[in-house]
Amino acid sequence: MILLRTWSSWECCGAKVKLNHSPSLPTFLRLRQSLQFLPTQSIQTILCSPRQKISADFIGLLPLLSLIVTSSAGTDHIDLVECSRHDIQVVSVPGDQAKDVADMAVGLLIDVLWKISAADRHVRKWGLSMPQNLSFGSKLKGKIMYHSRNEKPFILYPFYSNVVELAGNSDVLVFCCPLNEQTRHIINREVMLGKDGVIVNVGRGSLIDEKELVWCLMEEEIRDAGLDLFENEPNVPNELFPLDNVVLSPHAASLTSDGFTEVCELAAEALEVFFSSKLPSTQVLDD
């Protein structure tokens, strides 16, 4: 089994190796194999997170790979087509992350509306000469509406089949959908709201056309944004750092102590079942 965390540095047999950059996973495996640190021919399982891309090239280096366990709800970082071609199971063990992510979405929304982070920076720099325009107003009043691939009969809120129409009737958009070919850049210039609009993203970074979002924030074409994810992680656009109309979070919505413990327990259970020659019961290949 291989546990994928960070591969820019590692230790084996007392020898420490550090790279100046993080190579791709295939390059990482070839390097470790050449140093006789990792017998790739014998690896059967992988435990990973969304930060590691499990590509076809990577899978091709592991002929005995049979199971990939990911700690995330999404599987867009894994080449599912290649996994299916090689009969590799993909198991998602996010635990009850949905509640933690929902809490983060609300937290980001309150922060951007109240300008809490911006006020914090102001106090640290200037003291109590606070700006007077930190008004909460009535932005959290109103009704909830939603967009999805299909209308959910158990959801009583108004349904919009078109995200552009939803945006046109909303002051706040919260995105928490999985990333696939249909949802990539679902937040484009057409969806971007007017000057009073707010965008919160706790789904995947590539749901947003990030270049367009940066431009809209800099030009104040939208009011605010709360972002827990970015399109080219771990890179964050430098243009966002000085802006007071955006709150940034390091892909941490699901990183709670309880959530981490639950994910570890579920991952251990899935691996134990696999190595007991039974099929895991939580297989997830797509949303």
From TrEMBL:
<dbReference type="InterPro" id="IPR036291">
    <property type="entry name" value="NAD(P)-bd_dom_sf"/>
</dbReference>
<feature type="domain" description="D-isomer specific 2-hydroxyacid dehydrogenase NAD-binding">
    <location>
        <begin position="140"/>
        <end position="253"/>
    </location>
</feature>
<dbReference type="GO" id="GO:0005829">
    <property type="term" value="C:cytosol"/>
</dbReference>
<dbReference type="InterPro" id="IPR006140">
    <property type="entry name" value="D-isomer_DH_NAD-bd"/>
</dbReference>
<dbReference type="InterPro" id="IPR050223">
    <property type="entry name" value="D-isomer_2-hydroxyacid_DH"/>
</dbReference>
<dbReference type="InterPro" id="IPR006139">
    <property type="entry name" value="D-isomer_2_OHA_DH_cat_dom"/>
</dbReference>
<dbReference type="GO" id="GO:0030267">
    <property type="term" value="F:glyoxylate reductase (NADPH) activity"/>
</dbReference>
<protein>
    <recommendedName>
        <fullName>D-isomer specific 2-hydroxyacid dehydrogenase NAD-binding domain-containing protein</fullName>
    </recommendedName>
</protein>
<feature type="domain" description="D-isomer specific 2-hydroxyacid dehydrogenase catalytic">
    <location>
        <begin position="43"/>
        <end position="284"/>
    </location>
</feature>
<comment type="similarity">
    <text>Belongs to the D-isomer specific 2-hydroxyacid dehydrogenase family.</text>
</comment>
<dbReference type="GO" id="GO:0051287">
    <property type="term" value="F:NAD binding"/>
</dbReference>
<keyword id="KW-0560">Oxidoreductase</keyword>
<dbReference type="Pfam" id="PF02826">
    <property type="entry name" value="2-Hacid_dh_C"/>
</dbReference>
<dbReference type="Pfam" id="PF00389">
    <property type="entry name" value="2-Hacid_dh"/>
</dbReference>
<dbReference type="GO" id="GO:0016618">
    <property type="term" value="F:hydroxypyruvate reductase [NAD(P)H] activity"/>
</dbReference>
